[in-house]
Amino acid sequence: MKKYNIITYGCQMNEHDSENIAGMLDSMNYIYTDNPLEADLVVMNTCSIREHADKRFFGMLGQFKNIKKNNRDFILCICGCMPQQDRIVEEIKNSFSWVDIIFGTHTIGEFPNLLKKRLETGKKQISIVGDSSKICTFENTRRLFKHKALVNITYGCNNFCTYCIVPYTRGREKSRSLDDVVREIKSLSEDGVIEVTLLGQNVNSFKDINGNDFSDLIREVNKIDRIKRIRFMTSHPKDISDNLIECYRDCEKLCKHIHLPVQSGNNEILRRMNRHYDVDRYKEIILKLRKVCPDIAISTDIIVGFPGESDDEFKDTLDLIKEVQFDSAFTFIYSPRPGTPAADFDNQIPDKIKHERFDRLTEIVNESSLRKNKMLENKIVPVLVDGKSKRNNKMWTGRSEDFKLINFFSKRENLTGEIVPVLIDEAKTFSLDGREDIS
Ligand code: SF4
Q1: In this predicted structure, what is the pLDDT of residue 344?
Q2: For residue 137, pLDDT beyond 70
């Protein structure tokens, strides 16, 4: 039997695409291996958001040249956001002859046929331009975990933040129908899934053909018996409705956590980022969320060094972090993505300043995370166990409802997929340690 491996970069949308691609390969009788070097077929599922992504990607591509030289039957496939850009496809075609199959984010469903054609003809197969208005769902998915699942509810994005390449690579936003999503989650629950993460670039702008919005969807998923936890990723502040906020009061399965990217604490920067909210509106949302759900955990994304960002404008971001007291934040140094408006803005910030600001930002974010985590010391928190900890295999690891990473000791075995009460002994910046509470 032939073996395959998938290398996944980027966001949870890509992770879920990889699960679907794995499902296709499983049903074609390929066997998964976690070692790409012993695989007969490798899929590289790419991301184009990060700085130097192209360089890293092409470096990795180069490493497969020798494998191909030694094994003419080895198949290398490229998919994800990178091939959505013509210049990348041209470069692969011109300089990386050992790539066999290239497909895009809208043509994932074509992958089995592309593979069959490649095997039959020996010729390179490329299919990037699919029908971006069509929503593809897949029957076979190889989930990373038996007890939890990622479920796409929207695809693409209409927001055109000036720094972001996603609307150009993933296309315009489309929502699945509420009934379709609920049907999928019911079927997952029958297969042992107890936690679902509703996925999209901007989940809270979900609107299906029957007029159902995101809060309607959460309320329906909340009714599914065996589902115990509902999460979503990612939301946009401009689309947070009061109806959604009320779900935190009414839906007991909705986890007490929201990832709400603020990006900057300065209104002028937010305007130039094309974010469609200002700092006061962001703070108003946080107040409302905390009113209906006082212990909600709030995480965010922040970009430093956006073109033209003055020191005072950067300080506004620091002030906002101190005021909101985030539980955690993904912090990014702005890097121009070719093809986005901000890449052509004047006043790009020198690297040295960007890095200095990043260090100051990280320090304040980390202080805030630690302070928040400390509040859980000596408390008992329910943890959905993902498996043994990679850091210490005598410990188990999982997530609390508020998405904290918890490592803990237990005298019991086989805890994966269980919700276990954990007494927190020690809070750190990025995780918490504890032990199973057996009182
Ligand atoms: S909301 Fe903005 S940052 Fe998020 S995917 Fe859409 S364009 Fe990119």
Answers
A1: 95
A2: no
Instruction: Identify the CATH number of the domain defined by range 380-436.
Output: 2.40.50.110
Q: What's residue 7's pLDDT? A: 92
Residues contacting ligand 1 via CB (< 6 Å): 157, 159-161, 164, 166-167, 201-202, 236
Give the integer Cα–Cα distance in Å for 403 and 255: 8
Q: Which residues of 93-112 are buried (b: 16+ CB within 10 A; e: fewer)?
A: eeebebbbbbbbbbbbbbbe
User: Best of 13, 155, 166 to mutate for ligand 1, by most ligand atoms within 8 A of CB?
Assistant: 166
Q: Say whether pLDDT at 48 is over 90.
A: no
Domain positions in the chain are: 3-127, 145-255, 285-375, 380-436
Interstrand relation of 229-233 and 195-199 (parallel, antiparallel or unpaired): parallel
Query: Where does residue 174 rank: exposed (0-12), middle (13-18), buried (19+ CB within 10 A)?
Result: middle
Average pLDDT of 24-45?
Answer: 93
